[in-house]
Amino acid sequence: MNRLVRLEVESLAIIDRLALELGGGLCAFTGETGAGKSIVIDALGLLLGGRGSSEMIRSGRESLLVSGFWDDELVAGRRITAAGRGTARLEGEVVSVRELGARVGERLTLHGQHAAVALLSTRTHREFLDKGLPAGDLLERYSAAYTQFTTAKDRLERLKMGERERARELDLLEYQFREIADLNPQGGEEEPLEAELERLSNLEEIAAQAAQSLELLQEADYNALSLIQEAVKTLSNVAKVDPAVATLRETLKEVASNLKAVSSELTGISEDSAPDPEELERISNRLTGLTKLKNKYGATLKDVLNYQSELEVRLLELRGDDADLGDLETHLTHFRSLVLEVGAELSKARAEVALELGGSLVSVVRKLGMPHARLEFALTALPEPSSNGLESVEILFSANPGEDLGPLSSVVSGGELSRVMLSLSTVLGSSTPTVIFDEVDAGIGGSAAGAVAGQLADLALSHQVLVVTHLAQIAARADHHYLVEKRVRDDGRTETTVRALNESERLEELARMLSGEVSKVALEHARELLFSAGQSGVGRSGAGQSGVGQKGKAERKPVSARG
Questions:
Q1: Which of the 8 DSSP states describes residue 57?
Q2: Contact residues for 215 (Cβ-Cβ < 8 A; gap 6+)
Q3: If we measure between CA atoms, which residue out of 47, 24, 66 comes closest to residue 105?
Q4: How much is the average pLDDT of 306-312?
């Protein structure tokens, strides 16, 4: 199920340290006003990628940490430091806050006065409506047809730009291509050319140094070659009687031979003191041309060659535009017809779903403390097809009699918004295994409170539902009841704790919620409320449920936040 089984919080607001085991089904969080129930919601919001700041850190601490653990062993965490820095982790690996929110968002949906903002978006309205579409590939077929249509449309609009502008672009690109092609640059040719230019430019100096070296080796009165040859003669007499001397004499003879070869080469170099002016000019012009290309088309010759390839592709497109123009106009007409045809199917299906879904939602919403509420999905035709269909989708709402329907974003209050979201979640089902409601009971009581409790209990049959509530009717239907308390510790510091209630503790909490005090009458009323909830099917025997309020069931161990 990918159910959230444990929530750990450290140094968040007035929570010091919290380790909370969470059960399945409906989990109710109750407590006195100001006890810090919203802090639990804030902690889950951080795991969902919500905005965090250093102001959320408990006074005197360097950082806060929120960690969630799921029954498939996924672990997600978010740390925020006093310096305002943050770290998000999934399975121990550092990820971005966006990645954390996306992954946790696949498992948790948070609804509350401030967290159901997504419901104000018409995009969300369309997505809710499309959830009710019949099984099939209608949305995929429309998306494919629209993609073909827009691709052909964009191409045609580009082709239909002014002939003068297209001709100007063609002339410019052809000039650039010819300029590169005429020089025909080759990758890697610059360094050898630059080296040769350097050699030719210094040829006179090279010849002079070669002549000086030649004189030292062979032409001076005392030169290296004559001295080595004299040494060979000197060793000749003793070489006959000493093998080592004979070896050295042969080595000197090789040195003399090599000096003669070097001298011959130096003779040629010393005589070549004037560079070929034509070759010098050719290399210089070649390098100048390459530099010019780089200044215009790329920092390196590789960039220039890449640009030449791009030019070739674009020129082929421009030259083929005229031939394609007629074909594209025909294709565009066909694709537009296909979009309108599939779009009409989608519009018809949406209209049918909107009527049925709107009626179902009104029926549920009216039970949730808004007996005069009206709600409908308004489908408004668009002047042109969009990527999502031929019409816009928006939920229109009115909570009071005599008031016109208006956009949900402008007429709904925070509490009403939460109850509309509850209606959508129960009618359509939530897309995540865990659903959290904050202040869903705002402004309601009496029979409406029982209806809200019933809706939450129904949703909890297939989901893990966490709800922060002030209503005893909702808490009585819970499979797990958690009490949020604020206390002053021995060291004078205030902290919020959260613990699971056993049977007797839960009875007392319900009594407090009903009358503000734990009296005999209030306890009896609480007992009747639990009995009524049990008679309504609550206390289901699913995994992880406590069955509190039923005789013979074991008490649960409390889980608390320790300072």
A1: B
A2: 223
A3: 47
A4: 93
Q: What pLDDT digit, counting tens, does each position of 97-153 carry?
A: 999 999 999 999 887 655 456 677 888 899 889 988 888 899 999 999 999 999 988
Q: Look-up: residue for tokens 């740390």?
A: 79
Number of H helices, E strands in the chain: 17, 15
Residue 97: predicted pLDDT: 95
487 CB-near residues (< 8 Å, 6+ apart): 494, 495, 497
Structure tokens at 289: 């041309």
Encoded tokens for 244 = 């080592």
Which phi and psi (to 5°) does residue 17 adopt?
-150, 125
Question: Which candidate, 264, 269, 296, 261, places its Cα nearest to that of 206?
Answer: 269
With H, G, I as helix, E, B as strand and everything else as coil, classify residue 93: strand
> How would you write 189-207 as a 3-class SS string?
CHHHHHHHHHHHHCHHHHH
Could you give the percent of the chain with pLDDT greater than 90? 47
- Find out whether 248 and 151 touch, Cβ atoms under 8 Å: no
State the maximum Cα–Cα separation within the chain, in Å, rounded to a whole number: 138
CB distance 455 to 364 below 8 Å: yes
Can you give the pLDDT at residue 162? 63
Q: Which of 124-133, 254-263, 329-338, 383-392 has the highest mean pLDDT?
A: 383-392
Q: What is the mean pLDDT of residues 393-418?
A: 85
43 bridge partner residues: none
Q: Which two tokens stand for residue 309?
A: 């390839």
* Residue 346 one-letter amino acid: L
Token pair for 159: 């082709």
Arithmetic mean of pLDDT, 89-93 = 95
List CB contacts of 80: < 8 A, sequence separation 6 or more. 46, 52, 53, 54, 56, 57, 63, 64, 86
The pLDDT assigned to 546 comes to 35
Around Cβ 219, how many Cβ atoms within 10 Å?
Answer: 13
pLDDT at 28 over 50: yes
> Which residue carries 């030649």 as its tokens?
214
User: What's the number of CA atoms in the CB half-sphere (13 Å) around residue 366?
Assistant: 12
Q: Which two three-digit tokens encode residue 52?
A: 């965090």
**Segment holding 176, helix H or strand E:** helix 163-183
Rounded Cα distance between 148 and 141, Å, is: 11
User: Residue length, the chain?
Assistant: 563
Burial 341-354 (b: 16+ CB within 10 A, else e): ebbeebbebbeebb
